[in-house]
């Protein structure tokens, strides 16, 4: 119970310089630990594929023709080299072009209606325009077309999308959006989000990616009208659950852009590079100007044309993995037409048409037209050929889709009833 | 044996060393051979009025030390030892102790009251000795004055020893009644009154309920106030100490009494002896502390949920308080600036004035300015010094708008006074005031700078000149330079007005460190501190000069190490500490940008060699500084640090084993983290040793608890560095983490300190989990972590339910949820979905206002969505 000392610091700072050094060290260590953790969290969360450097195929440098751009097709699968997004974001020039050309997810064409359409799928009206990846990083934003070539380089309100002092977070953290550039209103319509502020969303379900896209994009101001630091407006696309009302809204609802068909995304599917059956495209005359393929003059040919790849043994294959074989050329004909394995060859489908048994191609009546345009990088996919075929013969109509959504609802009711009885 | 005890105890205090040693040996043997009998003999000795005062006193002291120790682990041992003794024996000892309170010997009484309190400190929390308070209280009412005094002292010690929750309210009421009655002026014996006042001081923490009762509080306050008027100076002082304690414990109950208290304190400050006046001033300083805290916490915005409202006592008393305090400033001691331990009424009054300025802000300025103007030019140094001190005191608190014109006006005057005033005392305060001006009114954030390129040269010249003055003035000049440099900290790469003088400033500071009298008045320390700040706040322009400074400081360190071979003393070690500190700042500065780092790296080998030599000294401070500097070096060097590891490792291990100087241990743990991040997987060869040491540290009850949280964080650093190689440590580290997690999950009933500690422990544990999960990510061995996932999730859930995490823990916790999901992926999906954390906790964090929490939560949401989608 000795009287307590009441001396206070006099003409001296409350903490010594040593204490200050100690605290600063602790702060530095805590910061370094946080950086190391964040680094570990971002890094290696996704490894994406990069083609082997030795496969230097000639590639189109300019943007492909509009009509070609609108039609999903694929490129031959190549042996992947693991490369994460962080490294990829540092690529420049041709390397970057090659890498980005592989990164878009491409829908198959809808040739039959998936089960549980109403429950497991989203639907939205696809904006008409150039499909591209938009990458914002280090104070600039770059959009790249599906072949990897640059469409625009511009400042934007996306994270680190413009050189500004007030940006939050590390400047090198990148964001990648899957967009369609709509010429008429000079707007990027965002149809998917692949990376956001350094976080990769490749391994996230579509449901989550759309949620994230909806909640994050608006926060940035990227949806605001263009300004000095924001050259193009970004805009969200209304995405619906694929039930009766959602499907109707996507099909008939008015949107600020020109529609080019409907896109269907499976809610549980990750963002998968290349062609995937978990995203589907469907078109009819009401919602797209480009239902049927056109030739190089923009005319719809009398007979459906297909481009197939000539493989070993004269097999004519689609670009799918595994490929679907449409027929076979004999050696003599190949020699005569100077065709060799690896060539892309154009055919017209004759009166015999395509014969399917149990969904599998049994027979195809193909008439040789010639080698495909040199700009073509790959053959048609099976679903594309089939969709184009069905458009000419027995198209899948909106009523069929609506019907399946209704019957799905009925079915689930039925299942429910049975369980109640049990 | 009992016969011998007296002699042994006397011998143990003998002048003859051999005799003393023998006696100490005997006591030790006795204690080891038969503890119960030993303790009983001591209690008997203490109680026996026939025995000599010296042996009784030592008996009491040994008894006290057998019940309590400073070191936490020893304390716990002693408590357990006492509790396990035979109850009958303990009852006998306690009876002897209580009897001793009535002893005619004043020494025996005062010793036994402390022993009784120690026993109470052990037994009351275990619901033992229930009759103690009752029997003490029965003493208070009847027995002769000396016993009453000893009994009141005992009650006071008990209140100091035990926490309020182990004494029931009925006993508290009775203790307070007895104590306050003892203070009453009807008690004629001054010793009893003094004991009562001091007991009340300790009992105040028990009086929550009584202070909430208007009548009881009025009574206590009336008696305390009356006691401040006692004719006995010790009693008056003790009564003011009670008022000081009440001001912080029961601030919100003071409103009805504040006017009376002001009158009492004003009288004491004016008329009473200094020891009483100091307490009276402290009352107002303490009120300022309370109001500053309240205003800081709530920003002056009082909503219904504010715990304690601000009563603005200082603001209300301002016009009386300020003149009272200004008056004290004129009562300086002649040589107070040379005396490190000085504390007098002028110092206390000036300190209080500074606190008042922080409490009320602008309002103080018009009340102080006339005093300054009146006195600043007077022939009497006391008046000039008081005026200067008053000005310096009010520079923190009032707005820059209010002060800036005054400071601009005063600056030239002060610079002249620092050069020309004949009084060292005035110069000391003037230099300090200049430092305060720079500290609070100079910086890139302020609108109108008081320092311009025009007056910068003059300021620097005067300060450098002043560094040649007597040590106490030179020390303050270094301090002023410190803040002058600090003002340019945020100037960025913009040109600093100090750049042209950089070389001169550094040279002047180095010269100061070489002064013969640099060890006086902390001068050398102040010079190095200023040098450190000048380096910290340097910019691109001056970076080359900082690079040149490095070899100079290295040479200094080299020289002290060479001198040490000849003679080693405290000062040599202190200097090594300062030099290591300075090198740490240089390393951190030069390491922070690529071009300077490149230039600095030429010295890395030499500098590391010097640091390693510092470890040869015995000084904990020097070790600590060298370790901190090595951490900075590891960070700057990166993977190349590997080449130092063979030599450095043994010191790293030594640091981790240093339980005694736990600061060294804590800093070494931090440096392990730095080295992990620098070396990454190259740390692997050293991990067996490091992990062994860290695990030992954790299981030790000797190591200060504050080191344990950083050790857990360090597990995370190691795991992140070596990835799946952490596998072999899982078996040891995980159970430790689990049991620590269980202990730290609940804080219920703990005080603020304990809650804060628990949160730091939680953070350490969570950082460990985070590092381990991230370290294993992508490895084929991730499934090894699966068995631990349920526990980690449970821990997160219980933390969430407990609702007492701070923001840092919240951020780390939600991050761990993400890390777990990220690494274990879909195999942990169902577990994650079952946890509350993945739903409510995550949802709360996602909508947090705290940017870092939100960011971590978004990461967690993302990782979880990956884990639970197929």
From TrEMBL, chain A:
<keyword id="KW-0694">RNA-binding</keyword>
<dbReference type="GO" id="GO:0003723">
    <property type="term" value="F:RNA binding"/>
</dbReference>
<protein>
    <recommendedName>
        <fullName>Snurportin-1</fullName>
    </recommendedName>
</protein>
<keyword id="KW-0539">Nucleus</keyword>
<feature type="domain" description="Snurportin-1 m3G cap-binding">
    <location>
        <begin position="103"/>
        <end position="279"/>
    </location>
</feature>
<comment type="function">
    <text>Functions as an U snRNP-specific nuclear import adapter. Involved in the trimethylguanosine (m3G)-cap-dependent nuclear import of U snRNPs. Binds specifically to the terminal m3G-cap U snRNAs.</text>
</comment>
<dbReference type="InterPro" id="IPR047857">
    <property type="entry name" value="Snurportin1_C"/>
</dbReference>
<dbReference type="Pfam" id="PF21974">
    <property type="entry name" value="SPN1_m3Gcap_bd"/>
</dbReference>
<feature type="region of interest" description="Disordered">
    <location>
        <begin position="1"/>
        <end position="62"/>
    </location>
</feature>
<dbReference type="GO" id="GO:0061015">
    <property type="term" value="P:snRNA import into nucleus"/>
</dbReference>
<comment type="similarity">
    <text>Belongs to the snurportin family.</text>
</comment>
<keyword id="KW-0963">Cytoplasm</keyword>
<dbReference type="InterPro" id="IPR017336">
    <property type="entry name" value="Snurportin-1"/>
</dbReference>
<keyword id="KW-0813">Transport</keyword>
<dbReference type="GO" id="GO:0005737">
    <property type="term" value="C:cytoplasm"/>
</dbReference>
<dbReference type="GO" id="GO:0005634">
    <property type="term" value="C:nucleus"/>
</dbReference>
């Amino acid at each position: 119970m000795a009287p307590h000392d009441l001396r206070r610091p006099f003409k001296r700072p409350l903490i010594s310089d040593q204490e200050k050094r100690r605290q600063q060290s602790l702060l530095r260590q805590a910061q370094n630990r946080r950086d190391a953790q964040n680094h570990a969290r971002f890094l290696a969360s996704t490894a994406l594929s990069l083609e082997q450097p030795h496969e230097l195929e000639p590639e189109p440098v300019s943007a492909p023709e509009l009509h070609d751009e609108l039609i999903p097709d694929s490129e031959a699968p190549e042996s992947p080299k693991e490369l994460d997004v962080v490294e990829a974001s540092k690529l420049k020039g041709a390397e970057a072009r090659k890498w980005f050309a592989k990164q878009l997810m491409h829908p198959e064409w809808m040739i039959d209606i998936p089960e549980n359409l109403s429950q497991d799928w989203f639907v939205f009206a696809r904006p008409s325009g150039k499909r591209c990846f938009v990458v914002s990083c280090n104070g600039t934003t770059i959009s790249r077309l599906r072949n990897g070539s640059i469409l625009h380089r511009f400042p934007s309100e996306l994270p680190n999308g413009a050189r500004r002092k007030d940006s939050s977070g590390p400047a090198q953290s990148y964001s990648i959006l899957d967009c369609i550039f709509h010429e008429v209103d000079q707007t990027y319509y965002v149809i998917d989000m692949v990376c956001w502020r350094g976080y990769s969303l490749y391994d996230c379900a579509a449901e989550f990616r759309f949620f994230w896209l909806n909640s994050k994009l608006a926060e940035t101001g990227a949806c605001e009208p263009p300004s000095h630091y924001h050259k193009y407006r970004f805009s969200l696309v209304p995405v619906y659950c694929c039930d009766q009302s959602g499907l109707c809204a996507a099909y008939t609802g008015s949107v600020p852009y020109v529609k080019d068909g409907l896109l269907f995304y499976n809610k549980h599917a990750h963002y998968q590079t290349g062609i995937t059956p978990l995203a589907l495209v469907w078109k009819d005359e009401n919602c797209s100007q480009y239902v049927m393929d056109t030739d190089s003059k923009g005319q719809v040919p009398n007979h459906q044309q297909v481009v197939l790849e000539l493989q070993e043994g004269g097999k004519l294959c689609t670009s799918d993995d595994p490929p679907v074989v449409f027929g076979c050329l004999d050696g003599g004909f190949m020699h005569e037409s100077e065709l060799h394995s690896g060539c892309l060859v154009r055919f017209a489908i004759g009166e015999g048409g395509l014969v399917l048994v149990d969904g599998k191609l049994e027979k195809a009546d193909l008439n040789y037209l010639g080698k495909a345009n040199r700009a073509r990088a790959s053959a048609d996919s099976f679903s594309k050929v089939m969709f184009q075929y069905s458009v000419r013969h027995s198209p899948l109509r909106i009523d069929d889709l609506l019907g399946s959504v209704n019957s799905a609802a009925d079915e689930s009711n039925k299942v429910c009833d049975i369980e109640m009885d049990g | 044996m009992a016969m011998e005890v007296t002699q042994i105890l006397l011998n143990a205090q003998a002048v003859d060393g051999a005799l003393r040693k023998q006696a100490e040996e005997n006591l030790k043997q006795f204690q080891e051979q038969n503890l119960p009998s030993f303790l009983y003999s001591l209690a008997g000795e203490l109680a026996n009025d026939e025995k000599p005062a010296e042996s009784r006193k030592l008996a009491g002291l040994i008894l006290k030390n057998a019940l309590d120790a400073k070191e936490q682990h020893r304390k716990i041992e002693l408590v357990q030892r006492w509790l396990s003794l035979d109850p009958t024996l303990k009852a006998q000892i306690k009876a002897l102790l209580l009897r001793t309170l009535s002893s005619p010997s004043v020494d025996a009484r005062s010793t036994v009251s402390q022993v009784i309190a120690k026993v109470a400190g052990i037994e009351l929390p275990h619901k033992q000795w229930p009759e103690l308070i009752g029997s003490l209280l029965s003493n208070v009412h009847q027995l002769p004055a000396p016993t009453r005094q000893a009994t009141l002292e005992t009650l006071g010690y008990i209140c100091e020893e035990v926490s309020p929750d182990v004494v029931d309210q009925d006993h508290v009421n009775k203790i307070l009644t007895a104590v306050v009655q003892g203070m009453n002026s009807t008690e004629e014996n001054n010793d009893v009154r003094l004991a009562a006042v001091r007991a009340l001081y300790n009992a105040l923490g028990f009086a929550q309920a009584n202070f909430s009762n208007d009548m009881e509080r009025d009574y206590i306050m009336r008696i305390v106030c009356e006691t401040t008027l006692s004719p006995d100076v010790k009693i008056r002082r003790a009564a003011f100490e009670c008022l000081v304690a009440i001001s912080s414990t029961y601030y919100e109950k003071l409103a009805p009494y504040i006017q009376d208290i002001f009158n009492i304190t004003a009288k004491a400050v004016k008329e009473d002896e200094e020891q009483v006046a100091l307490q009276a001033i402290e009352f107002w300083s303490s009120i300022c502390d309370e109001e500053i805290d309240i205003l800081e916490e709530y920003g002056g915005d009082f909503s219904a949920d504010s715990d304690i409202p601000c009563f603005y006592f200082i603001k209300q008393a301002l016009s009386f308080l300020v003149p009272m305090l200004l008056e004290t400033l004129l009562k300086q001691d002649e040589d107070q600036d040379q005396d490190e331990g000085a504390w007098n009424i002028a110092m206390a009054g000036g300190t209080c004035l500074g606190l008042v300025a922080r409490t009320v802000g602008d309002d103080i300025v018009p009340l102080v300015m006339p005093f300054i103007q009146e006195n600043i030019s007077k022939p009497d140094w006391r008046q000039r010094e008081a005026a200067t001190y008053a000005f310096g005191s009010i520079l923190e608190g009032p707005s820059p708008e209010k002060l800036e014109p005054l400071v601009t006006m005063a600056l030239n005057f002060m610079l002249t006074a620092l050069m020309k005033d004949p009084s060292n005392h005035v110069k000391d305060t003037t230099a300090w005031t200049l430092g305060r001006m720079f500290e609070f009114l100079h910086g890139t954030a302020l609108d109108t700078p008081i320092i311009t390129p025009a007056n910068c040269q003059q300021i620097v010249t005067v300060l450098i000149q002043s560094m040649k003055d007597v040590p106490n003035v030179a020390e303050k000049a270094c301090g002023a330079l410190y803040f002058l440099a600090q003002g340019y900290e945020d100037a960025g790469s913009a040109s600093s007005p100090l750049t042209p003088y950089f070389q001169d400033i550094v040279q002047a500071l180095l010269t100061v460190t070489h002064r013969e009298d640099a060890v006086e008045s902390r001068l050398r320390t102040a010079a190095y501190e200023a040098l450190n700040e000048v380096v910290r706040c340097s910019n691109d322009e001056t970076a080359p000069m900082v690079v040149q400074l490095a070899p100079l400081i290295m040479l200094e360190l080299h020289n002290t190490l060479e001198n040490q071979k000849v003679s080693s003393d405290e000062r040599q070690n202190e200097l090594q500490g300062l030099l290591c500190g300075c090198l740490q700042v240089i390393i951190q500065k030069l390491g922070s940008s690529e071009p300077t780092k490149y230039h600095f790296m030429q010295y890395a080998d030499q500098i590391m060699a010097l640091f390693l030599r510092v470890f040869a000294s015995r000084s904990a401070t020097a070790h600590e500084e060298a370790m901190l500097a090595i951490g900075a070096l590891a960070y700057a060097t990166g993977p190349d640090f590997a080449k130092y590891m063979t030599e450095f490792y043994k010191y790293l291990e030594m640091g981790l084993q240093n339980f005694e100087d736990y600061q060294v241990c804590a800093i070494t743990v931090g440096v392990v983290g730095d080295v992990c991040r620098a070396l990454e997987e190259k740390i692997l060869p050293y991990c067996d040793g490091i992990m062994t040491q860290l695990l030992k540290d954790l299981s030790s009850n000797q190591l200060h608890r504050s080191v344990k949280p950083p050790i857990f964080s360090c597990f995370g650093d190691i795991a992140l560095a070596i990835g799946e190689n952490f596998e072999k440590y899982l078996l040891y580290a995980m159970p430790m983490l689990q049991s620590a997690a269980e202990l730290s999950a609940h804080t219920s009933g703990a005080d603020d300190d304990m809650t804060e500690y628990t949160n730091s422990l939680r953070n350490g544990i969570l950082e460990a989990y985070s590092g381990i999960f991230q370290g294993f990510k992508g490895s084929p061995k991730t499934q090894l972590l699966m068995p631990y996932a349920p526990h980690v999730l449970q821990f997160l859930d219980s933390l969430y339910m407990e609702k007492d995490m701070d923001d840092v823990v919240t951020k780390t916790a939600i991050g761990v949820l993400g890390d777990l999901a990220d690494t274990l992926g879909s195999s942990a999906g169902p577990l994650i979905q079952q946890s509350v954390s993945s739903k409510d906790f995550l949802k709360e964090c996602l909508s947090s206002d705290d940017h870092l929490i939100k960011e971590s939560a978004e990461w967690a949401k993302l990782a979880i969505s990956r884990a639970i989608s197929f």
